[in-house]
Fold this sequence. Notes:
This protein has 397 residues and is an alpha+beta fold. The chain folds into 3 domains: 4-72; 79-187, DNA polymerase, domain 1 (Orthogonal Bundle), CATH 1.10.150.130; 197-386, hpI Integrase, Chain A, CATH 1.10.443.10. 45% of the residues lie in helices and 11% in strands. It is built from 15 helices and 9 strands. A hairpin with a 2-residue loop joins strand 3 (21-27) and strand 4. The longest helix has 21 residues, at 41-61.
Amino acid sequence: MAKKKTHRTWGRIEQLPSGNFRAKFKHGGILHKAPSTFKEKASAEAWLNRNKAEIDKAEALGYKWVSPAERENQDQLSSTTVKDLIETWLADEKALPKLSTRQSHRRHLNARVLRESFPGFDSIADERLTAVDLERIELWWQQVEDNWPDMPDANQKAYKRLHTAFNYAIKKKFVTENPVKVAGANKKVRTKVQDRPLLELEEADAMVENISPRLKAPLLILQWAGLRLGELLELRRKDVTDNGIVMTLSIERAAQRVKDEETGKQVMIVTPPKTEAARRRIVLPGKVAEKVREHLSTYVAENSEALLVTTEKGQPMMDTNFRSRFKYAAKQAGRADLSPHDYRRFFGTMLVTKSGINLEEARIIMGHESKEQLLDYMRAAANSKETAASNLDRLIS
């Protein structure tokens, strides 16, 4: 049965194959349709007449007419909470394609934004989006700083994610402006890690001595190639190019630990590099290349997909497993404060201060997007003051 169209002086009614009626009209060049069809033609006519009367009244009184769709949207938005926004954002795989990113955002937001209220902390999770303004965000931020004064880095990570969530809300037209703009809240936080002493060569040697044999060469790769731990754990035989003189590592992927959303268990997945800049090739120092050749012949299967770092049973190694062994070696070396990322900081510092290359070349080798990121990795050596004094002394005639 074909659609039947009924022409009116204002608006239009169509009879659908189902027998129901659909009503629509144009106003201000925009086509407006009834939110649902009508069983009776009279009901469709009544809907058109009601809207025509509302438009005429608005024009007569000089105010803007709001369409039924806009009214429905406004009603929905008026009840949307901060928690609703965050859940919508974290479920949007187009906005956040990486599972690990979504899970990281959730951890930080759960800790400060979505947690329940308690004495001295008024949660904003159930606040309506349309009611959240700068004053409310300032109160929340002040309570965050008051309750977690010794965790400025975690506080700021939650703040930044909340700010990004509201930017998403603007894009989706939930709100028209971002209220998360507290003065000073985005100021860069200096963490305790940034003041951690730089790894010393003697400490690095002691680490190699005290770590399990199958991790000695991988530890040297961390130290002298500056890989992120996830990049090391996903390094495969096919990523190593070696002509017997020069050995090059190609960084094309990374392993990342995430929570399986069905089982709740921690699993390792393969992801693209952190950024496009993280895709890079690194030439290993000759002495490190020798150790890697020994490692390849002793611990790595012959096929091109074989991982360089595995457990004793030849299985992929979880980052938690690696960190546990790393921590034991660090404690034995007298540096229980170290983490695998300190090796990347060591490498970045050596590139800038000892290698003789410029900052841009060092940035590319480190896989950073900007030189500022590289400089943030710089650490002072333990004897830097004495070295500076000695070097300056040679300038004095």
